[in-house]
Structures are given as structure tokens and as C-alpha cells.
């Protein structure tokens, strides 16, 4: 469920007091969707979600602490406050800021994923199994009023096909610790340290292919240049495009990217042209893709 902007501002000002910070100086980082992310004075970042995400927020905090103990570079939750914090129907987590953050290189992302995938599956820390279809039905339902009957019918039929195809290609694949949403915005580099992983809400146990398919999709969308993708492959050590199941997982990833965009249509009607373009691409798997990154 999307976070209300005005409510998020009120919440971040209220919780800032718990840290003896000036909440009026909170700076919104990026667009608001499932989370609202603010920078607070004192090199602290607050992530706000609806109370329905309370279990997920707790898991993110525990994941951040577990990754720190494993030596995998990732954003770190604040230790000085018990969290998550529940305020007026919203759940808040606090993280150490990565100062001067910029997007990590594809080679750095690959190295982070290589480290992550090489970890032993923990026995003393409960990590959920990957659900490749998590929230897809919710995204499509929220977009229904903005979609034509034809598009609604197509998307419903397509998700059914993808469930069957994904189960088929995933059967028997080895599993490991994965990020779950290894897109280009979820690895950043600060001015005072190495690249780190962030947005740990989809952290799960699943096949490494689920993480690796994202750069492959970005390459064919033109969001990664051939050189950037080659750098990713060289750093990780394997090109998922050589795997027979690539096209199936790539189709599901593109469907997820489209559904997430569609879920924002009611509150962001400016996205309608991009949504139309993406649905057309899903209808024509072999056609060119001219998607706009960052939407």
C-alpha cells in the first residue's frame, strides 16, 4: 500500500524526536511509493511504510544486522533505538546514511551478489522462501480502474501463463541467499567506503538466477550498455543469458516492472503513456522495447 506524503512527513517529524533530531530538517529522498525515505540530521535515514508492512520492516532490520555479521557490505540499521517504531498507523525503521551516495557500477553490483550468493543458508536466522509473484495481484487490482477491459483480460491471462512457465524452469534449481530485487538502484557507493546493498525487503532464499536476470533484462532494455553488462558478467563469472530459462524469468521480471508501474497510475496519471508502452511490449515479446528508466 502506498504511503501518504503528508502523513509520512508528520510521522518522520514525530519519530525524529526519539533520536533527538530536528524533524523539520528531514529531506525526502526520491518518490514515495510503498516506502517514504527521509534523510535526517546526524547521517540517519528513516524508511516509512504502512503498518501492514510491520513484519517486513522487522525482517529488514534483522537482515541488515545479519549481513553485517557475515561481512557482506549492506546498509546498517541503527543500533541506538529499538525498531521498527510504530506511529499513527505507520512503521518506521532507521538506518545509517551512506554519505554522498551514488549508483554502484555493474561490476560492483556483481561482486556484492557473488558474495551474497556464496553465503551458507543460515540455520539460526529465518529467511523466507522467494515468492516471484509477491504483490503482483495487488498491483494489478489497484490499477484496474485505469486499465481497459482488454488490458485487464490480457494481464490476467499472462500472469497465469507465467506462473506455469516459471514453476517449470525453476524446478530443481539450487537455492541460496538472494537479494530478491537486485535492480540498479539497490547497490550504492558512498564517499567513505565500498559499495553496499540496500532495500532488503525482498531478501529471501531462492535460485541465484532470480537476482541475475535483472541485469540481463536491463541490458536488453538499453538501461545497461553492452560494456556495462559485460563488466557485470566478468565480475560475477556467469552470463545468465546462456541459460535455457532466461527468457521465462526475463518475461516475469518485465511483467513485474510493468505491474509496479501500473499500481501507481491512479495517483500518478502522468505515467499512462509509459504504462501503455510497456503493456504493448508484453503483448509483443519479440518487439523492440523503448521503456523509460526511473519511472
How would you summarize the topology of this molecule?
Layout: H1 5-16, E1 27-28, E2 36-40, E3 44-50, H2 54-70, E4 85-87, E5 90-96, E6 102-103, H3 106-117, H4 136-143, H5 149-170, E7 176-178, E8 187-189, E9 195-197, E10 204-206, H6 209-221, H7 226-236, H8 246-262, H9 272-283
Antiparallel strand pairs: 1-2, 2-3, 3-5, 4-5, 6-8, 7-10, 8-9
Features:
single chain; 295 residues; alpha+beta; Phosphorylase Kinase, domain 1; Aminoglycoside 3'-phosphotransferase, Chain: A, domain 2; 2 domains; 5-stranded antiparallel β-sheet; 3-stranded antiparallel β-sheet; 42% helix
Total of helices: 9
Global Rg: 19 Å
The tally of domains stands at: 2
Percent helix range: 40-55%
How would you spell out the order of helices and strands? Answer: HEEEHEEEHHHEEEEHHHH
Tell me about this structure.
This protein has helices at residues 5-16, 54-70, 106-117, 136-143, 149-170, 209-221, 226-236, 246-262, 272-283, and strands at residues 27-28, 36-40, 44-50, 85-87, 90-96, 102-103, 176-178, 187-189, 195-197, 204-206. The chain has nine helices and ten strands. The mean pLDDT is 93. Helix content is 42%, strand content 13%. It is of the alpha+beta class and 295 residues long. Helix 4 crosses helix 8 (246-262). The strands form three sheets. It has a five-stranded antiparallel beta sheet, sandwiched between helices. Strands 6-8-9 form a three-stranded antiparallel beta sheet, covered by helices on one side. Strands 7-10 form a two-stranded antiparallel sheet. 36% of the residues are buried. The longest helix has 22 residues, at 149-170. The two termini are 18 Å apart. It has two domains: 5-97, Phosphorylase Kinase, domain 1 (2-Layer Sandwich); 106-283, Aminoglycoside 3'-phosphotransferase, Chain: A, domain 2 (Alpha-Beta Complex), CATH 3.90.1200.
Amino acid at each position: 500500500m502506498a504511503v501518504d506524503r503528508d502523513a509520512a512527513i508528520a510521522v518522520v517529524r514525530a519519530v525524529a524526536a526519539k533520536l533527538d533530531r530536528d524533524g523539520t530538517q528531514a529531506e525526502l529522498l526520491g518518490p514515495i511509493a510503498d516506502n517514504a525515505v527521509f534523510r535526517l540530521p546526524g547521517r540517519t535515514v528513516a524508511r516509512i511504510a504502512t503498518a501492514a508492512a510491520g513484519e517486513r520492516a522487522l525482517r529488514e532490520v534483522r537482515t541488515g544486522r545479519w549481513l553485517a555479521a557475515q561481512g557482506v557490505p549492506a546498509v546498517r540499521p541503527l543500533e541506538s533505538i529499538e525498531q521498527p517504531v510504530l506511529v499513527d498507523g505507520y512503521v518506521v525503521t532507521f538506518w545509517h546514511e551512506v554519505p554522498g551516495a551514488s549508483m554502484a557500477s555493474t561490476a560492483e553490483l556483481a561482486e556484492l551478489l557473488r558474495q551474497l550468493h556464496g553465503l551458507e543458508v543460515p540455520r539460526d536466522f529465518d529467511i523466507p522462501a522467494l515468492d516471484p509473484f509477491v504483490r503482483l495481484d495487488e498491483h494489478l487490482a489497484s490499477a484496474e480502474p485505469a486499465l481497459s477491459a482488454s488490458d485487464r483480460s490480457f494481464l490476467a491471462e499472462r500472469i497465469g501463463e507465467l506462473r506455469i512457465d516459471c514453476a517449470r524452469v525453476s524446478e530443481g534449481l539450487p537455492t541460496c541467499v538472494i537479494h530478491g530485487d537486485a535492480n540498479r538502484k539497490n547497490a550504492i557507493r558512498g564517499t567513505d567506503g565500498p559499495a553496499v546493498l540496500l532495500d532488503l525487503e525482498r531478501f529471501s532464499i531462492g535460485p541465484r538466477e532470480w537476482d541475475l536476470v535483472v541485469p540481463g533484462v536491463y541490458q536488453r532494455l538499453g538501461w545497461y550498455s553492452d560494456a556495462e553488462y559485460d563488466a557485470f558478467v566478468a565480475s560475477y563469472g556467469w552470463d545468465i543469458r546462456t541459460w535455457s530459462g532466461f527468457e521465462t524469468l526475463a518475461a516475469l521480471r518485465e511483467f513485474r516492472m510493468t505491474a509496479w508501474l501500473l499500481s501507481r497510475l491512479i495517483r500518478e496519471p502522468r505515467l499512462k503513456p509509459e504504462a501503455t508502452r510497456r503493456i504493448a511490449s508484453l503483448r509483443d515479446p519479440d518487439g523492440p522495447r523503448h521503456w523509460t528508466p526511473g519511472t
